[in-house]
Structures are given as structure tokens and as C-alpha cells.
Hints:
Chain A has helices at 20-46, 56-59, 62-87, 91-121, 130-161, 171-196. Chain A is an all-alpha fold. Chains B and C meet through α2, α3, α4 and β7 of B and α3, α7, α8, α9 and α10 of C.
Amino acid sequence: MHASTTAHPAEHDTSTGLDNRKLLMWAFLGSDCLFFGSLISTYMIYRGRSLTPPFPGEVFDIPYTSVSAFVLLMSSLTMVLALAALQRDDQRGAKTWIMATALLGSVFVGGQVYEFTTFVHEGLTLSVNLFGTSFFVLTGFHGTHVTIGVIILLSLFIMAWRGKLTSHNSLNLEIAGLYWHFVDIVWIVIFTLVYLLPYPEHIAG
Amino acid sequence: MAVLKRCPIPPLLPLVIILSFLLAGCISDDPMSTFSRDGSAASLELDLFALIWWLMVAVFVVLEGVLLYVVLRYRKRPGQEDVLPVQTHGNTKLEIAWTIAPALVLVALMFPTIQGLGILSEKHGGDAINVKVIGHQWWWEFQYPDYGTNPQGQPLVVTANEMHIPAGKKVNLALESADVIHSFWVPRLAGKTDLIPNHHNTMWIDAKNPGEYYGQCAEFCGTEHGMMKLRVIADTQGEFEAWVSAQKSPQPAATGVAAQGATLFLTKGCIACHTIAGNPAAQGKIGPNLTHVGSRTTVVAGFFENNTENLTKWIQNPDSLKSGNIMGRDAPVYKVPELAMTDEDVKMLVAYMQSLK
Amino acid sequence: MATVTGTMGGVLPRPSIHTTGFWSWVTTVDHKRIGVLYGVTAFTFFLIGGIEALAVRAQLARPEQGMLQPALYNQLFTMHALTMIFLSVMPLGVAFFNIVVPLQIGARDVAFPRLNALSYWLFLFGGILLNAGWLFGGSPDVGWFAYSNLTGTDYSMGAGMNYYVTGLQVLGVASVAGALNFIVTIVNMRAPGMSMMRLPVFTWMTLIVSILLVTAMPVISIALIELTFDRLFGTNFFNPALGGDPILWQHLFWVFGHPEVYILILPAMGIVSEVLPTFARKPLFGYAFVIYSGIVIGFMGWGVWAHHMFITGLGPVANAVFALSTMLIAIPTAVKIFNWIGTLWGGQIEMKTPVYFSIGFVAVFIVGGLSGVSHAATPSDFQQSDTYYIVAHLHYVLFGGAIFGLFSGIYYWFPKVTGRMMGETLGKWHFWLMFIGMNLTFGPMHWLGLNGMPRRIYTYPSGMGWDFWNLVATISSYLIAISMLIFLHNVFRSLRKGPRAGNDPWNARTLEWSIPSPPPVYNFAEIPVVLARDAYWEQKYGSGHENGQAHAATSEHVSEGQYGAAADERHDIHMPWPSYWPLITAFGLFVVFAGLLVNVVFAALGVLILFYGVYGWALEPVAE
């Protein structure tokens, strides 16, 4: 991951001065916007149109999910701290904050697994109704994104552990950070639209 | 190939082809022609199409003509090797002009478009009649809610694949689907609208004159989509009223061979899918309502004439007429050897069907 | 999971650099070779899709024919569309992106050569998966648009739809990966001096298409994911019984589907915009207008999707809005046609095969564009929607448009890729047969549609007035088939016997013609410095060309190929090494999706292979 993949050896030898991989990540995130945009649109179109219980109000535990949303938000902060540490060549700090970010991400994913399990016990499954279908697929794909992010962070941690992640190639962490912040922002949108926005009376539960 | 080398591209070829269609178009009186003015909606749609068509023919002739001229006039000639043509890079005024010109034409087309949309989405009251159209794989069900219901709330007048309407009256259609998406289309009367599960679409049709108008499902709906046809039969007001009262009247008790067929209709499992009003056991909803099937002009979703030969083939082996049909696929009578019908059985059933006038 | 062996940190030993042989193609990361792989694979699929079309036409030749049963007929027309759109026209465009774009912008490769290889392998595996139904359990048979809820397990019980959802998903990943690569390449790897407004038009169209791919593909991915979950895991996205809405699929599909139309046509428009100036010996008329209209088409392509859904009962207001937006999108298209004619006006058109196809494109595309206006007007479309009139329209745009443009590109760049010229006489035979065959096949369909013939019917009764023109269309479709045989003969003959092309056989305008044919691995021995639009023309004729005088001396000097000089002495250029990892990674993803259809264990195995591929990739140094 650390070697430039361009035919041009020098990193800044590009028409825009922006590194190729950074531009790739930006373009990919643009694509991912449409990915989540379509998933969220599906959820919003079906919001309140589920015919059979359980309904959202019967299963949601807003305080619990708020805490796990807060955990994910904090991981963005630790990500910023990790990059700042790496850029000033504070290896120890970088390792700590990378690991902290990965752990916070894992806590979020773990929380989601627990939440899903609880919901299934309460009768909300993937196939029971339209709400279960659209809820699990939307939040599940977000959880998958976080999981991939955690794997990337752990890989970077191993690189840092071996001393192969330094201020010279901090771009690796910066790009991972772009992805991580994006996934975070998407959760803010999902959390607001799925959990916080009130549901129509008759299905609030 | 010397000929080819001298011959320029003739964009005239498509021109000739298309103009020849145009000439044919003016005289097309085929059963599914969209050039018909038999229905008010079709007439409105044809007017808009004709307007666009002539406009586009004019643009086509000019553009292809210029292209042909350019290709003939500006081909490379001997002696031009050492001289480059004038290197024009563009002409802003010209380009702005030819951006605005099509814009004006296209925006102008919006006026009849919006006007037409308004007329086509009207709901008709007064003496308009209502028909509920239900699409099934692969046949049509027509319910007439205006003429009374039975104790179960089902309309008394229900038919399949043939819709009778009174000529000269507006008919409001409520479009629904029992399974997948279909599209109701009778080109001589009106353009099409989809029948979609969980949606309640509407459209209206009318027939200016009595007659038989062919239609067909226009949205791909599975294996036998190609055979999902229908007919709209526009009657005079008197004929229509007579038809309605005949449909409402109970079936006379079957006699002779037909009565044996009526028994088979129960024992062979036909009642699982078909309704025959007046026969309390026959309440199935999966296949067409057969209450007055003997009075219909076609069988098998409008594809075949309703006669003894076709009915026999259809009941004996549905796949021989329509290979993907659901009766042949699911009905136990074609699956379970013990239930299989003899030729004699088929004859009795045909007789029963034909007795249901 | 991936144990590190070898000194270079890679998991497998590096493939050695071979310039010939099977493994050199399997491990290649050279954009030109990947382009050739794309082209050959896509053309093979094009022939398969063509055979499917010929079978469909044979069945429709006469009324009430029993040659094909409906179950098979429905698979054939569905696979014809899927094959032509996703496995032929799109990847043929990508083949040109690969071969031409780095050369036009003066780059030595794309930004991510291994990602580029990954795109190709994913495309190949996706194509195989989509076609797997011919051997295992039946192909998709619900049309390429696959309207729900016909696609659910209640109504599509066979395996066909499973190949549809997984095959298209893999192809989608391939497209997005490829498009991301080209966005970065075009934005970041232009030669010094090549500003955006000096980019060749084909490269510009590649950029617009790539942006459309990156944004439109995720939408269809979501639709496919939802349908996959419905079919395999019992979700209810498109299940009306629990409140699911079949129209949601149509919205998602066409929000992708309409940009997709421009994904198919813009590469051909880019090719025509290169070919016409070259053979008219004039610059493109109104370069900026052509670029801007391309951008406008790219944007507006997002605002017209519901014109595919006029008959679904959207209501008069929505119908009017989408009618208006559809009318408006015709404007930038018209502008392009005017500009192409303006380019030819006053030129010295050299009538070689590429320009035949380009002029043929313009002539036929006009018809497709004009018939489009008649179904932009919603009430008129109520009659035309889902009839053969639409079939005629879309083939005038996609066959008369995209395919003519792509053939123009094949004749134009074949000498650059192979070093040999294609036969002119055979080329013109090919053109005329295809042009006449095309117009006689699809022209009559306008009439059939207006005379009431619906699409996607496997047979029709006699007496509807459809018999004669269906027969004409069928016979003419075989004329197109003959023209393809002539083309294939021309290709194989030219590969062996075609005259040597030299650097610049067409006296062309862009940088790819400044280097030898075929180009060396590194393309440019020295990265060129670009001083003007039409960079190579500028080098040949200098800035004094406005007065209409050819600078023969300059031309001669440059056509020796200053950038390709001393090819064998360039040991100082570091090119990316070949790699196994793109193939392994692509194979992993293929196993994930194919495994889903067989057994979750296989899918899990696929995930392992995928991870193995990604890790090996990440740990592989780029150059040794």
C-alpha cells in the first residue's frame, strides 16, 4: 500500500498537484454517496409504509443507539488526532490513536450486532415486514462499511507497529481518514432519518 | 468497388424508407393501428404525433440534405494535397443561434403536450360508465361495478378478455393487477396505462362508433405476454343494455351432455380456479370467470376464436395452444394420472362451456 | 492469512516480464494490452448478442411461427439486450478509453494499472456469470429492465434472475473501478501544457462517461442488492403483499438507466468528433460547444429518467415536467450534430472507411434523435411506449449511433494498435452492407410500432398488418450479419497482410499519432509538452496554419516520430510490473457472487480469496 502505483515515480508529479490515490478516494466517496443515497431513498420511500408489526417505535432504543452514535463520532476525533500525530512524526501517539479509532469503530459494530440480535428476538427480522427489510439492509451496509474501515485501520496499525508508517507516507492514513469520516457522516444522516425523525402516529407503536 | 469509391453516402435512403411508411400510414386501417380516430383519446394522441412528425420530417430533410451536400461538395479533390482548407474553429453567433432555434421549437411543443395531458387525465362523471380492469398472467378480467353486486359484494357483471362498452359514451377504467405489471392498450381507442400491484391507476376510453377493437397487454409480464390479447366490443346503447341484462341473468340449468360436463367441472377440480355465477361450488378466483363464457367470441386471452375445435384443444392440452399457460402448469387434471380426462370427458366439458351463454 | 515470502514483500513471486505468450496477457497491466483484451472480449460478446438477435428475428419472420417456444424466446431477447448493452457497447467504449486516452493525454499508462487489469477481469467474470444460465438452469427471461415484481421468486422461479442480479453486480464493480481510474488519469496525468480545454474531445467524453458511471452504477447496484436480498434472503423490497412497491425498482432502474444511455452513446460521439476533423483536415467546429453540450447532456441525463415511465400513472404534473426535461435534453444533442456538419463544411474530406462510419453515424443518429422527440411528448408516447416504434428508436440510437461510432473508431485506431492498415475496399463493403441492412431492419420497425405491434411478444397472428415488414426486417438483419463476417475477414486479413501504418497514416491531430504504431510499452520516450489544442497537428503545421498553407517541411520532420525515437535505448523508464493480483482478486469476487447461488460456503471461500488478493496486492511493490 505504501508505494505509489503510478507510472510517475514522484508523488506530486500530477496535473493538479493532488495525489492520484487521494483523488481516487474522493471520486470513490462520490460514488459511495450515490450508493448510500439510493439505500436511504429506499428507506425513506418505505418509511411508514410497513403493514405489519413490529413497528419502529416498538423496537427502537434511542438512548442506546445515541450512545453508539456518539462512540462513532468520537472515533472521527481520534482519527484526526492520529493523523496529526503521524504528521509530526509522533509514532507513539499515532499508534495509540489509530488503535483507539479502530477500537471505537469495533465498539460501534459490536453495538450494532447486539442491537440487531435484540431486534430479532423482538420479532423484527429481515423478512418479517417492509420495515425490517429496509432497516436491516440500510444499517447493515453501513455496518459493513465501518467493518471494512476497522480492517483498514488495523492494517495501518500493523504498518505503524513495524515502523513502516511515518510522516513521509502519512498519506495512507490521510486517505483512510477520508473514508472513515465519510462513513461517520453517513451514520449521522442515517441516525437522524431512521431513529430520530418521528414516525407517523399509527405506526409509532 | 470503383462504384463504391465514387458513390457518396446517401442519407436519402432512410428518408425514402420513412416517407414510404408515412404514405402507408395515412391509409392504415389495420386492427391495431395508432392512426385511427375511433376513440377521442387516440385521436388527440394522433394529432400531437402528426404535428411532431411533420415538424421532424422538415428537420430531417434539411439536416440530411445539408449533410449530403457537404459530403458531395467538400470531398478531397486532386491537387489539394499541399493546401489546407481554411481552419475555422467555430462561429459563436451561429452556434448560439442553432442552440436557441431547437429550444424554441421544443418548448413550443410543450403547449399541446400539457394540454393533452390535462384532457387525458380527466375523470368523467354524468352518464359515463365504470369498468374495473384487472390484469392476470395472462388474461384480462373486467368487472362492471355499476350493475349490482351479489351478497359477497362481487359485481354481477364480470367477464374476461372481452370488454363490452356502449359506443359514444366515456368509460372510466380503474386499472389493477392481480399479480405482476401489465399494461392496458387498445390502440384504436387510446394509448396505454400500466396495471401495477398496490397502485390504483385510471384512464378513460370511448369508441365513437360501434365495432370491435383489438387490444393487447403492452408491458412484458412473463412467459405468455405475447398472447395476452383483449377486445373491446362497442355496442349501441340498446345492444349494450341487452348484453348487461343477459350477463346478470342466471344460468339456465345444464341439460344432457352439458349437465355431465357440469359434474366433471366439479370433480376434475376446475372449480378451484374458475367462478360460474349460479354454481355455488365454483368460486375460484385464479382463472377467468366463466359465467357466460359461451357468449364470448374468443378463448385463450383473445388469441383464438371461440369454437368447438379450439375449446377442445384448449381443455385437452392447454400447452398446445399456449405453451406457458398457468392452467396447463398447475391444474391437477394435467398432472395427476388418476384425474386425466378422456376424450369423452373433454367433449362433455366443451358442451358445458358452450351452454353457458 | 497472507504469509510474506520473498525479498520484495510480495506473497507470490513476481511474474517475470514477458512480452509474448499467454501469461504475458494474463498478468499484463499495460493499458494498451488491457484495451485489446477488452476489445476482443467485447466483440466476442457482440457476436453472441448478434446471434441471439438473429434467432429472435427468425422467430418473428412470419406470423404464428413455432420455431422458438416463448420460454426460450424471452431468454433470447433479454440476453440480447443485456449482452449488447453491458457486454458489448459499454466495454467496447472502455476498450477505446484504455487504448486511446493515455496516448491522447501524453501519459505512459493509466493512474492505476493494476486496478485497470482488475476492471478487465471483473468484466470478463461478470460476463461469464451473466451468461452462465445458458448452461446451468436457464438465462434471465424478464427483459433487461427486469421490472419487479415479475422478478421475484413467485414469478421467476428459475435460476435466470439469479444470474442477472449477480452478473450485473460484478459488471457494475468492474465499470466503477474502471471509471474511477479514468477520472484520476484524465484529471491528474495530462502532459505538461494540456489544460482541460486542450483535451482531445474523445478524452473529454471519456471523462464525462466515467463520471456518469461512477455516479449511476451505485444506483443500479442498490436496486440489484435489494432484488438479490428479495430472492435469496426473503426480504420484501418488491413484495406487494407486504407493502412493497414495484415502481421503486423502475425509479432506481431508470435513474441509472438514462445516464446509462449516455454512457453508451458519448464514447461514440467522442470518436466521431476525432474522426471528422482528421479526415476533413479542419479543427472541430465549435470545440467548446461540443464539450459543453457533452457536459450538459451528462447533467441533464439525470433529470429525464421518468420518461421511461410515462405509462405507469405518474400523474399529469410529473409527466409534464419530465416531458419538458426530455425535450430540453434534445438541444445539446442537436448542437453536436450541427457542429459535426459545421466541421465537414469547407473541409477536404478524405473518404476513407473511418469517415464513412462517422458520417453514417451522423446520418442515422439524426433519425434516432428526431423519433425521440415524438415520445418526449407524453400523450404521443402513450401510443408508442412499449411498441416496436421504441425498438426502432433505440436501435437507431444504439446501433446506428453507438455501433457505427465504435466501428469508425476501430477502423481509425486499428493501425495505431496493430501497426497495420485495414483493407479499404472490404471496409467500404462492410459499411454499405451494414448501413443498408441497418436501415432496412430497424426502419420498418417504426411502422410496425405505429401500426400497433407491441415489444417483447414472441409471436403475432396474421391479419394485423405486421407480416410484410417483419419479414423485411428479418431478411435485412441477416444482411447485417453478412457485413460482420466481412469485417472479421478484413480484421484477420489486415493483421497478416495489411500495409504497414507508420506513425501517422491519417495525418491526424492528436498525440497518439506522434509515436510509433504499435506504440512502445512506455508510449512516450519523452513526455510531450503541449502548446495547443490538437497538439500533434500544431507540431506538424505550427501556429502559422491559419492562413491555409501547409508546412510540408515541418510535417515531414515530425512524422518521423520524435517521441518514439530510440525506442530500444530507453532503459531509464520505469514501467509498472505485471501482476497476478488483479486476476486473483477478481476471481475472489466472482466466487463470492457465484457462490451465493450455490452455497454460502463457496461465497465464504470467495471472501477468503478476495482478501488474499487484496492483501497480496497491497503488499506487492509496484516496481522492482
